[in-house]
Design brief:
The complex is a heterodimer of chains A (about 280) and B (about 400). By secondary structure, chain A is α/β, with parallel strands linked by helices. Chain A contains ten helices and ten strands. Chain A has a domain at about 15-110 and about 185-270: Rossmann fold (3-Layer(aba) Sandwich), CATH 3.40.50. In chain A, helix 3 crosses helix 5 and helix 5 (about 140-160) packs across helix 6 (about 175-185). The longest helix of chain A has 20 residues, at about 140-160. Helices cover about 70% and strands about 5% of the residues of chain B. Classes of the chains: A alpha/beta (about 280), B mainly alpha (about 400).
Chain lengths: ~280, ~400
């Protein structure tokens, strides 16, 4: 993470900015997935990105986590620990180390491992124990093992999976898998958490519990949350601010109430219900 | 590699000796039986599995108890120390050259294939690098080292050389996934063998290197020389295997081991959980390579003769078969798998059964591999994690295949 973006990046407005996407364009061959997308998220904010299927929401997430490298534009993450960090061109694990963690649209857990091990992998990823330390059980290794064990228990408790810590990830019900993925992401100690459709496929009770969890993550852990979600009820109740994408472009942004009234949004998304949306 | 060698007199002797040899019909029958077994899989797989589970369930029921487990390991170790004393020199030689060295090789490859899920088909190249390193440092090669070292002290240097080769090969190639990596490593194995054959001025070429000295140890007034007898090599090997077992076991249950599982299961998820995928893959590669390098040093010095023909691709495949047979990712599996599969042909050589001939070995190994893949893909002593992965893959969850985690496309 050598490349710093300098402190000059656009003025944070009223609040301190946690991430700033500036004029990002991403295309695959002739298909433009994101076209001159700019957005800013304030620290501590829950920001939702909505838009019809194919609008480029997940592409945006992949750019933010280093999975895709956009053709042009800048993405600057303002880390509390490291100052401004330019995301573009860094491998996903470095982006994670800088303080951005994510979950996936279809949960990608380590299915043959237990819930405990899944979270622990996240918790211990910034640690320093190498193969020699591990083989020789050096003092640092033992200390780090103890630390990550207790942190893992805390996180499982936090997401409400304490009782299932020895269950295989594959054996968990859908809602719990979502929670486990959030716990694994939180384990890496993020300042910004990206959630890609966390409530997709959950039942109403699970959905309400998830909303509660996301609020907790935001309020109690002080983690900024960037959220992709199709469920409008959830988005309206959770988000401080909403950004609307359509055909790879930002067509509106503002508070939930503002966005709901925006005619462009109504036309593109809310007014004409997408048959694929649940 | 099958079939007897031709003779000069009769132009068709090859055909008589191989294609029309009575054994060929035996193989065809064997193949047909195998085919029937495959097609009868649906009906019998469950029954065969239940049977094999019943056979292996006793140790598993006993082994969760740490005391029982420690007892079993101690008993095995005691047996491994005492038993060779009762063997004649032929079997002692088999124990070192055919079993011990291969157990070590299988343990090393198990880290690469079993722990990290990387298919390495050029593994034997590191063994060659270890063997040629010891030849170099002891001054047996046409090129001479800056200073001569006794082979015993060349061990760390040879291990480092093999590890460096692993890092050098791994760093550019481990970005590749699955099949591509297998192809590159296959090529690397070939390159090392061909280079050893053709770079006569450096390696001595196809005739090989003779007169690599035996290990000698002289430190603080204690000195010991390994000679022609097999047992001292055996005990050195046994010591190293025990050491490696402890080290790899700790590794498996550490941060590093869990990172490997994560990479094996889902590379994209592992990366976004902050794991430096390339670093951990190179690490697995280097650890496997250095183990293989040590085996090369030991064999080179013991036999005191190496030639490029010792390091064939076939040998890489053989070691892979040992690991798969034992159970990928399982340390006891690698030991038992290598010991059983390497002992059996030697036993059959002395006590022929059903017309077994040494040159048909790979035919049987291939058949064995097919049968294993159908009925017991997790190996004879499976690792618990691997067993779960294979179970999940059979139910369509996750991406575990026979050899390792190749990640799907990015979401």
């Amino acid at each position: 993470m050598a490349a710093s973006a300098g402190m000059s990046a656009s003025a944070p407005g009223r609040h301190e900015v946690v991430v700033s996407v500036e004029d990002v364009t991403l295309s695959f061959g002739g298909v433009t997935s994101l076209s001159h997308v700019s957005l800013q998220q304030a620290r501590g904010e829950i920001l939702a990105v909505i838009g019809p299927n194919g609008a480029g929401k997940t592409s945006l997430f992949n750019c933010l986590t280093g999975v895709y490298v956009p053709q042009s534009g800048r993405i600057v993450f303002y880390s509390r620990r490291r100052g401004p960090v330019s995301i573009v061109g860094h491998r996903p694990h470095l982006v994670n180390r800088a303080g951005i963690a994510r979950t996936f649209q279809t949960s990608r857990l380590f299915n043959a491992l237990t819930a405990f091990e899944n979270v622990k992998i996240g918790v211990e990823s910034p640690q320093r124990t190498g193969p020699l330390g591990a083989m020789l059980h050096l003092p640092r290794t033992r200390r780090e093992e103890r630390e990550s064990d207790s942190r893992t228990v805390e996180l499982l408790e936090f997401v409400g999976l304490r009782g299932r810590s020895n269950d295989l990830a594959s054996a968990l019900p859908y809602g719990d898998r979502r929670r486990l993925e959030i716990a694994r992401a939180l384990g890496t100690g993020p300042e910004l958490l990206l959630l890609d459709e966390p409530a997709a496929g959950t039942n109403p009770a699970e959905k309400a519990a998830l909303a509660e969890l996301i609020r907790d993550v935001n309020a109690r852990m002080g983690v900024s949350v960037l959220l992709i979600e199709h469920d409008m009820g959830l988005v309206m109740s959770l988000a401080d601010r909403i950004v609307v994408l359509n055909f790879g472009q930002v067509i509106a942004s503002g508070t939930p109430a503002e966005v709901q009234r925006d005619p462009a949004v109504v036309e593109a998304y809310l007014g004409a219900p997408d048959p694929e949306d649940a | 590699m099958t079939g007897p060698e031709g003779t000069v007199g009769d132009a068709l002797s090859g055909v008589h000796g191989s294609l029309l040899h009575p054994r060929v019909f035996g193989f065809i029958g064997f193949g047909l039986a195998l085919w029937l077994a495959v097609s009868g899989r649906r009906r019998y797989a469950a029954r065969v599995r239940a049977l094999s589970d019943r056979v292996t369930s006793l140790p598993r029921r006993l082994l969760p108890d740490a005391r029982v487990r420690a007892g079993v390991y101690l008993a095995v170790l005691g047996f491994a120390i005492a038993y060779p004393l009762a063997l004649n020199s032929y079997w002692q030689e088999v124990l070192v050259d055919q079993i011990g060295v291969y157990v070590l090789l299988a343990l090393g490859l198990n880290v690469v294939v079993g722990f990290a899920g990387l298919l390495d088909l050029g593994y034997i190249a590191f063994y060659a690098i270890g063997a040629y390193s010891v030849a170099y440092w002891s001054g047996s090669l046409p090129v001479h080292p800056p200073f001569h070292l006794d082979p015993f002290y060349a061990i760390p240097l040879a291990i480092v050389a093999a590890m460096l080769a692993g890092v050098l090969l791994g760093t550019p190639t481990l970005r590749l996934r699955g099949d591509y990596l297998a192809i590159v490593t296959l090529g690397f194995g070939e390159i090392i063998q061909i280079a050893a054959t053709n770079m006569q001025g450096i390696t001595g070429g196809a005739p090989g290197v003779v007169g690599i000295p035996h290990f000698k140890f002289e430190l603080f007034g204690v000195h010991y020389a390994w000679g022609l007898s097999n047992l001292p090599y055996y005990y050195l090997l046994l010591g190293f295997v025990v050491l490696v077992l402890f080290a790899f076991r700790s590794l498996e249950h550490s941060r590093v081991g869990r990172a490997w599982v994560a990479i094996r299961e889902d590379e994209v998820a592992a990366e976004s959980a902050g794991i430096n995928v390339l670093k951990y893959k190179v690490m697995a590669f280097a650890i496997g390579a250095s183990t293989s390098g040590f085996a090369g040093v030991l064999e080179g010095s013991k036999i005191s003769y190496i030639e490029p023909a010792d390091f064939t691709v076939q040998l890489s495949i053989l070691i892979l078969v040992l690991v798969i047979f034992g159970g990928m990712g399982s340390l006891p599996g690698a030991v038992v798998g290598a010991a059983v599969l390497q002992w059996l042909p030697q036993y059959l050589r002395v006590h022929p059964l059903l017309g077994f001939q040494q040159q048909d070995l790979y035919l049987y190994l291939g058949a064995l591999l097919i049968v294993m893949m159908i009925f017991r893909p997790e190996g004879i002593l499976p690792s618990r994690r691997r067993e779960r992965e294979i179970g999940l893959a059979e139910h369509g969850i996750g991406r575990a295949d026979a050899v390792g985690g190749t990640s799907g496309p990015i979401a």
